[in-house]
Amino acid sequence: MNYYLTLAFVLWGYMSLWFLISLFRKRNDVADVAWGLGFVLLAWTSFFLSGGSGTRGVLVGVLVSVWGLRLAWHIHARNRGKAEDYRYMAWRRQWGRWFYARSYVQVYLLQGGLLFLIALPVLIINRSAGRTLGLLDGIGVAVWFGGFVFESVGDAELARFAKNPLNKGKLLQRGLWRYTRHPNYFGEVAQWWGIWLVALGVPGGWFGIIGTLTITVLILKVSGIPMLEKKMAENPDFAEYARRTSVFLPWFPNG
Questions:
Q1: CB neighbours of 255 closer than 8 A, spacing ≥ 6?
Q2: 73-92, pLDDT tens digit by residue?
Q3: CA pair distance 6, 200, nearest whole angstrom
Q4: DSSP assignment, residue 108?
Q5: How far is CA 221 from CA 6, 113, 185, 247, in A?
Q6: Spatial separation of the C-alpha atoms in residues 191 and 142, rounded to whole Å
Q7: CA-to-CA distance for 123 and 42, rounded, in angstroms?
Q8: How far is CA 120 from CA 61, 145, 195, 207, in A?
Q9: pLDDT of residue 179
């Protein structure tokens, strides 16, 4: 079977399994845990489908695994013992009798399709050994590492802030959150740009920019920052925080 079709079939089975898990757990936000783990699955499945050789394939497999496993655990720990995420609860009310069908298509299958697109740089790397590692790979890893620090530290700062009952109703404006309103989102996007730079070391690697642009647009314009900013705007301190703090790219506060 064709390399990409095989991976698509594996991903379809994976997302369908998580849909069944969501029915058992009675909560659709398990899809957020499935997100990071899905990239790990695709990275190593594509690696072994291609013969399991190539230093660059091992490199990106490790990078994706570190990112995906950390993200999945973070989301699992954040949601444990709490009600279903507010976004999914809203859809549960809105979709009514079509809830299960729309959940499967709009949450799990759609997310699987986006996951496949975003993972394209990794899939292309594993399809072709390419030349030996060089300067561009080093730059890509450095960009990835910077993004990983922003995402993991930003998530940890927010988790500590949220656990303190004295912070209820407040916005986190310290640490990395002083320089960007979304350090975790910035970090996630940066990591995928780093992986795309590594992909440039193999034939056709430039085509992987489709995946990198997909995650960038999703976070900047669709399901990431816009949805969260709408919720943050309900806080009376948000307008002043937004005035002085960069929305995405880290920068010094304006005042």
A1: 243, 244
A2: 999 999 888 888 778 888 88
A3: 24
A4: I
A5: 31, 18, 12, 12
A6: 9
A7: 8
A8: 13, 20, 10, 8
A9: 97
Query: Cα separation of 92 and 122, whole Å?
Result: 34
* Other beta carbons within 10 Å of 49: 17
* Per-residue tokens: 135: 């300067």
| pLDDT at res. 223 | 86
The rounded distance, in Å, linking the Cα atoms of 128 and 133 is 13
Per the listing, tokens 């009952």 go with: 165
What's the CA gap between 184 and 186, in Å, rounded? 5
Q: How far apart are CA 116 and CA 42, in angstroms?
A: 8
Which residues make Cβ contacts (< 8 Å) with residue 229, sequence separation at least 6?
Answer: 181, 242, 247
The Cα–Cα gap between 221 and 243 comes to 19
The DSSP call for residue 31 is: H
Question: Whole-prediction pTM value?
Answer: 0.93
pLDDT, position 39? 98
Chunk the chain into consecutive blocks of 10 residues (it has 255) and report each block's average pLDDT, rounded to whole numbers: 93 98 92 97 95 88 98 94 82 87 94 97 90 93 98 96 93 96 98 97 95 97 92 93 96 89
Burial of 210 (0-12, 13-18, 19+ CB in 10 A): middle
pLDDT tens digits, one per residue of 178-229:
999 999 999 999 999 999 999 999 999 999 999 999 999 999 999 889 999 9
Where are the domains positioned within the chain? 3-244
Place of tokens 């997302």: 15
C-alpha 195/C-alpha 147 separation (Å) is 11
